[in-house]
Design brief:
About 35% of the residues lie in helices and about 25% in strands. The longest helix has 16 residues. The protein is globular. The chain has four helices and five strands. By secondary structure, the chain is α/β, with parallel strands linked by helices.
Length: about 110
């Protein structure tokens, strides 16, 4: 199962009001580094089910949230907890980097 599709219209409900930490990848269909981490996000969606929200937001289709958080480079991965950005990662990185940052929010 793939990561949850996050949009301008569901962002507040699914991420800001989530009762668990969230990881949102801001990317685009045409972005090669975004495609590199896509399998990691799909695996994490399954592995963290019930413990964290793992989502993807297409910046081309959802400019409001992308602009709100100042996303300029793709992929940008933002970690949210209690409605606030608590960490960020810019660029494609190995899965263990993504999980380590998320695990820090779960602890």
């Amino acid at each position: 199962m793939a990561a949850i599709e996050i949009t301008d219209s569901n962002f507040e409900e699914l991420v800001l009001h989530a009762d668990v930490p969230s990881l949102v990848e801001f990317g685009a269909k045409w972005c090669p580094p975004c495609k590199l981490i896509e399998p990691f996000l799909a695996e994490m969606h399954h592995e963290y089910a019930g413990k964290a929200v793992i989502g993807k937001l297409d910046v081309d289709d959802n400019p409001v949230v992308s602009t709100q958080f100042g996303v300029r480079n793709l992929p940008t991965l933002l970690y949210f907890k209690n409605g606030f950005v608590v960490d960020r990662q810019v660029g494609a990185v190995p899965k263990n980097v993504l999980t380590a940052k998320l695990d820090a929010q779960l602890g």
